Amino acid sequence: MFLADGGIFLNNDLATLWQKKNGTITTKLSSLYSEGFEVKKSIERNSDDKLTLLLYAHSKSYHKGKEIYGIKFALEALLQSHEKFKIILVDIRGDYSELVEKLTPNLDIDYFPHEVDFQEVLQICDIYLRPTCMDGSSLAVQEALLLGKRVIASNVVERSQGVELYKFLDQPDFLFNIFSQKAAKNDYELKSVLEYVNFLESL
Question: pTM to 2 decimals?
Answer without folding.
Answer: 0.86
